[in-house]
Structure formats: structure tokens, C-alpha cells
Amino acid sequence: MECPPPLELLPRELIWSLIEQAPEAVAALRLSSSTLRAHVDQYALHGAAIRLVDEVQVNSLGLQACVDVKVEVPRRMASLLELRLRLRCAQAKRILKRRRIDDRIAYYFTVPTFHPILRALSEAAGRHIGRLSLARYGPMPLAEIDFMWREKSFRKLDVELEKANDDDAKYVQNTIVTHKLKSPR
Questions:
Q1: Of 127, 129, 118, whose CA–CA distance to 48 is shortest?
Q2: What's the CA gap between 112 and 27, in Å, rounded?
Q3: CA nearest 51: which of 11, 95, 84, 93?
Q4: Please, what sign has the CA dihedral across residues 156, 162, 163, 167?
Q5: Are strands 66-74 and 97-101 parallel, antiparallel or unpaired?
Q6: Helix (H, G, I), strand (E, B) or coil at 54
Q7: What's the rounded Cα separation, in Å, for the pair 18 and 32?
Q8: Going residue by residue through the chain (185 aa), what tens digit of pLDDT does each one get?
Q9: Could you give the 3-state DSSP secondary structure of residue 78?
């Protein structure tokens, strides 16, 4: 009878702690055994309390009901974010375009506002985002896609509106108050 590797014998909480300390190792951990794969997948679906995402940029595109999204993550967090996305949205790998920028990885995609990858990204990004940048070029209300950041904490908010109205002003003001921000740029 074969003994399992010592790492497999660790409690789930310790394995999750290891993942938080070395998120770039999730792919290798998943390949090492079915037990570790299950732990990593559980962590990816339920555990991640660490901040994975430095910045999310969401641009609404004119009259179309589409958004252009860019997500920047530290390079060491990229494998974990990709796994979190793939486990939530099977189409993620096909939709995402990936580019390395210095010590970060940027993911880009353009999709309709109702596409399931938006909700998957919201869940995969975790609870904390460094910066949220919103731009709207056209009539689509920002509130239509605010499910992506409503439950998130973020340090900075950038807002660019082609034509602002009273509803936009109220929405931005409520976002500032709700998230305890100083002021948008």
C-alpha cells in the first residue's frame, strides 16, 4: 500500500494558506494529485480572500449593449485568476485575450452586457479590487452592469462619462458613499 505524499495529508486550511502564499503554483499543484486538485479547485471556487486584481476597466460601447473589459493582475496571481474564471465559465479561455505588461498580466474582452463571463469575472476577481475604472460612451446606464462591482471593495474609482445626466451623478455619488471613497477622478 502506497502512502500519500505529505502535502496531501495537510488540513485544507493549510493547503489554502499555501495557495495564498504562492498563487502562481496552482497549476502545478493541480497536476500533482487528484486530492490536491480538489483542494485547489475548492479554494478557487470558495476560498480566495486575497486581492487578485489590481484594476478592472469597464467601458460601455455606444448604442450597442456591449462592454469592453480589461482586467490587470499581478503576474503571480494570473494562474489563480484564470483557474477561477475557467471553473465558473467554460467559454473564458476562448473569450479572453491575454497580454503581459511588465510585472502584470492584462486580460481583454468585449461581450454583450448579459454575457455569463461578466458574472464569472465578478466572482473570480474576489472581494477586493485595487482600482475600478468606468467609462461610458453612449446611453447605457452604468447601473445596468454594476453587479460586477456592487459587492466589491476598491481603493480608487475613475469615472468618464461622455454625457452625464442627473441619474449618472446620483449613481456615482451613491457608489462613492457606499464604497467609502474620497472622490472620483
A1: 127
A2: 30
A3: 84
A4: negative
A5: unpaired
A6: strand
A7: 15
A8: 677 777 888 888 888 888 888 888 888 888 888 888 898 898 888 866 778 899 999 988 765 778 899 999 999 999 999 999 999 998 888 888 999 999 999 999 998 888 899 989 988 888 888 999 988 777 777 777 787 888 888 888 888 887 777 888 888 888 888 888 875 45
A9: helix
Of 55, 56, 66, the residue nearest 144 (C-alpha): 66
CB 49 within 8 A of CB 139: no
CA–CA distance, 182 with 106 (Å, rounded to integer): 27
Q: Please enumerate in sequence order all residues whose Cβ is within 8 A of that of 25, keeping only pairs 6 or more positions apart, or say none.
A: 18, 19, 79
Contact in structure between 70 and 100 (CB atoms under 8 Å): no
Of 18, 89, 76, 7, residue with least CA distance to 47: 18
